[in-house]
TrEMBL record:
Alphabetically ordered keywords of this record: Hydrolase
Active site (UniProt): 176, 330, 360
GO molecular function: carboxylic ester hydrolase activity
Species this protein is from: Nyctibius grandis (Great potoo)
Keyword Hydrolase: yes
GO cellular component, one term: membrane
InterPro entries for the chain: AB_hydrolase_3, AB_hydrolase_fold, Arylacetamide_deacetylase, GDXG_lipolytic_enzyme
Protein name, per record: ADCL4 protein
Gene name linked to the record: Aadacl4_3
Domain of life (superkingdom): Eukaryota
Amino acid sequence: AMALATVLLGLPSYDIPPGVNQPTKLRLVLAVLLSTAALGRILEKTGLCSQINFGRYVRQGRKLGLDPKLFIQDLQFNKVPVRVYQPKATSNGRRRGIIFFHGGGWVFGSLDTYEKVCRYISRESESVVVSVQYRLAPEHKYPAAYEDCLNATIHFMKNIEYYGVDPARIIVCGDSAGGNLAAAVSQTLAGRSDLPKLRAQILIYPGLQALDFNLPSYHQNRGVPLLFRERAAFFALQYLNGDALHMQEVLEGSHIPPDMRLKYRKWVSPDNIPEEFKVRGVKPLRPTDFIAEVYETVKRFCEPSLCPLLAEDAIVHQLPESFILTCEYDVLRDDGLLYKKRLEDNGVRVTWYHLEDGFHGIISLYDYCGFSFPAGKRGLDSVVNFLKSL
């Protein structure tokens, strides 16, 4: 069934790495993922429902009951829907305030999808958590998601007294596409003197660039769930343009002019990735002909608010203390490693946590329909421990 689904979806053959904990469970997760995608494709072809809307329906999560330890309310921050989690226990002083941006490739994900993750972070770190429901692609293209996250964060910063939050301990946090948004928001706020300074940024396997889909992690993990190499480019293009046209050219690297690729090589290059992450293989980028027409449709990939890895040093050196979580079996692993180096080169303190048996999306599976993995719980606890240190 899984092989049939991969054929139907035009995906590469899937790969369950031997180093993943509980490989049988991951195969089950993959089967659900592929079956959902295949059924969505069928529904779309019959005109009953778009594949993306069906995927959202399946992923939406179920409503949870009251939490005995948290006060939870749905609000709007500057017209952006948010869910606020506040510990009920009394506090000796003001609490940390965490603005959380969910993952899902800018296309999927909701407040309900990440309900258990946000409750866990709020309870275990005894912090106020604000989960942001930003607008999704392809209906709302870049910079809609970024603007929603920025506006919600600024609103929270200006009204923290209502939530008992310490203005010196405000943190932005996100996973995957949410990590991209957290990095972009952090960069935008770095130079603002009219707002509290961010205490930290937490980036959980973030996607930070769309120049090079041929970094070592992209080839080593191209068929590893939950994020295939082709899907990473698909999501980036959906967010940018609302469609996935020119995906093959983007994957091959013909969407970036040679002079621009040379300019950014100091930051986006396998040369900046530690050797221990190349032992599973490195596939050098084959020179491809630059296609100017494609570049015209994707040139905003070079904007740091879309690809934060491309921000200038003058911005990067102003960034707050950072936590970066990477997974070995993740196409986005090297994005995190490259940003870690950029931050450290600019004097920013970085706490790095690497899940050697982790794969992309593992945090979002925490306590999710029996699909939890020990590595996901370890990763989530590493985030909580970092928060407790602030």
